[in-house]
Amino acid sequence: MSDQAYLELWDLTKSYPSSEGEAVIVKDVGFKFRKGEFVTVIGHSGCGKSTILMMVAGLSTVTSGGIVLAGKELRGPGPDRAVVFQSPSLLPWMTAFQNVMLGVDQVFYTAEPHERRLIAEYYLTLVGLGESMHKLPSELSQGMRQRVGIARAFALSPKMLLLDEPFGMLDSLTRYELQEVLISLWRREKITAMMVTHDVDEALFLSDRIICMTDGPAAGIGEVMEVDFPRPRFRKEVMEHPDYYKLREQLIEFLEVRAHQCPGTAPTVRAAKIPYSSAHEPAATAT
Amino acid sequence: MILLEVKGVSKGFGPKAKRTEVLEDITLEVEQGEFVAIIGYSGAGKTTLMSLLAGLIKPDSGSIKLNGRMMEGPGPDRGIVFQNYSLLPWLTVYENIALAVDQVFPQWTPDQRRDHIEKHIAMVNLTPARNKIPRELSGGMRQRVSVARALSLKPDILLLDEPLSALDALTRANLQDEINRICQEEKKTVILITNDPDEAILLADRVIPLTAGPRATLGPSIPVTISRPRSRTLINESYDFKQTRNEVIEYLLMATDKRKVAMSKKLVLPDLLPEDLNEPRSMLGAKRRPRRRSEQKRETVEVAV
Q1: CB < 8 Å to A282, chain B
Q2: How many structural domains are present in chain A?
Q3: CB distance from A280 to chain B under 8 Å?
Q4: B277/A78 Cβ within 8 A
Q5: Which B residues, 254 through 283, put their C-beta within 8 Å of a C-beta on chain A?
Q6: Domain annotation covers residue A58
Q7: How far apart are the first and last CA of chain A?
């Protein structure tokens, strides 16, 4: 069972038409996620890693190739894939509890109202908001808002958890706290997860496998790294593991050197000229 | 020689009934020429500590001595760089710095003052932008102006209050290198407040964690023994770096563990499975029943052997 692909990306390509032909963002990305696996996609900003995640989420269309989740090809977004965005994206006029209930009411519409409330309360308490779940987003700190985002995703009992730089906006210490919150919830539920980040430590602490993306345009998978620190993981033990800094150096070296010069990713289509500055991606750093 | 001496300083805010004690019993000694980084969580009281050192607020108890003299209010002997730059938006780079220099060195000739200002603009590599106003500068450039302004006062001590937190990773790395270079050249005494362990270790001689507030206090100082000049890429491979980094992070994580309270609360997760929203919600007027994990029937399949 564990060897079977739960989520399969199959020759996934994304391109936009432009005045100079097709601008290829990601090209021929193929990857198989095992069930219950935590996979991180790491790469420079603008390399298209978020684009892949958005295609899996169904929020961005697929140009060619396909995505199969649990034996079904994906079309469009759905509550079976919960997304945690970089900004918490909460509705400002609703309390944390109401924000979580919004999705829960949809996905569990057959259940009794009090059961649905129990679901929201359960997850909000687990992320540490037991005392402040009836506050508005404006009354919560940035870290607490992101906790609501995590609770909202888990409350839907999704098949896939998609995390788009979930802690990118937080300071490093709050980030550590939230990584713990995320991993303890994930350990309970064993949801297959895909996370996009450019934080090397975050990737090493959380993932089973790390996909290293080469630079765009026409970005692809440069390398896949297995991270087999024993679980459950504790930061102290992970950081003192003899392989930790070895893997960390490998990742940093990949990002600093090899990401720019991986063979097979030479842009086959004239694409480099237009900066893909559209809403989908931050402006690429030309290299 | 001890330049700055902080002894048993406490500070709280609010009226008596609902008073929050932010800092408690802060004791710190900084040697001449030393680079000290204080690292702590957001909300721990880092900025309160900085305001105390700057003399912008007074401690409730305890004393702060600079150069052996009790500190009374703010003064040009301490150069401060704030997180939000704090430049006057209608003045150019040159004028912003001149504002400070003209105040502090009125005895100098205008030529002397001009040379002094130009020197400091050049030090942060902003000579081409000397006549621009802050709006026309990027965040990193604005912070450079702020650094130049603080240094132009020839302060005894430089106070950096999360100077790089508002910048993106790349600009941050550039400015870290620049601050590193300038502080080494000028042999300044510096206190840096930050929330980034890597930044603290890269720059400082000594890292001091600030425990989580309220009633935050300074932890034991962790010396950084990595030799200078330190290079961002080489530092990764250094054994000392790994050791120090682990030590700092461990202490900070321990500080939050202490804050955690074991809470026992009855939590119930109803036994429910999510619905497929693509399927119709009712069949011939009959409402769907919730799907429960415990009610899922096990299928028995007979297989011919």
Answers
A1: none
A2: 1
A3: no
A4: yes
A5: 256, 263, 265, 267-270, 272-278, 281
A6: yes
A7: 42
| CATH number of the domain within which A49 lies | 3.40.50.300
A211, A194 Cβ separation under 8 angstroms: no
Taking residues B216-237, what's their average pLDDT?
Answer: 82
To the question of pTM greater than 0.80 for the whole model, the response is: no
Give the whole-angstrom CA distance, residue B246 versus residue B252: 10
Per CB-CB distance under 8 Å, the chain B contacts of A130 are 263, 265
The pLDDT, as a whole number, for residue B162 is 87
Q: What is the DSSP string of A239-271?
A: HHSTTHHHHHHHHHHHHHTGGGS-TT-S-SSS-
What is the spatial distance between Cα A47 and Cα A14, in angstroms, rounded to a whole number? 12
Residues 191-210 of B with CB under 8 A from A: 195-198
- Domain B2-259: give its CATH architecture: 3-Layer(aba) Sandwich (3.40)
- The verdict on residue A180 lying in a domain is no
Contact indicator for A215, A227 with CB cutoff of 8 Å: no
Q: Cβ–Cβ of B268/A118 closer than 8 Å? A: yes
Beta strands across the sheet bearing B2-13 = B20-31, B2-13, B61-66, B69-70
| Closest C-alpha to B62, from B219, B218, B231, B250 | B218
Q: Per residue in A241-265, pLDDT tens?
A: 888 888 988 888 888 777 776 544 4
Q: How far apart are CA B276 and CA B270, in angstroms?
A: 18
Rounded to the nearest angstrom, the minimum Cα separation between B286 and chain A is 11
Region A145-166: what's the mean pLDDT? 94
Cβ contact A196:A50 at 8 Å = yes
In a domain, residue A172? The reply is no
| 3-class secondary structure, B206 | strand
**Residue in B with minimal Cα distance to A131:** B263
Range of the domain at A214: 1-76+192-231+238-269
The one-letter amino acid at B115 = D
Model ipTM value? 0.71
Domain extent listing, chain B: 2-259
| Spatial separation of the C-alpha atoms in residues B35 and A1, rounded to whole Å | 56
- Per the domain annotation, does A54 fall within a domain? yes
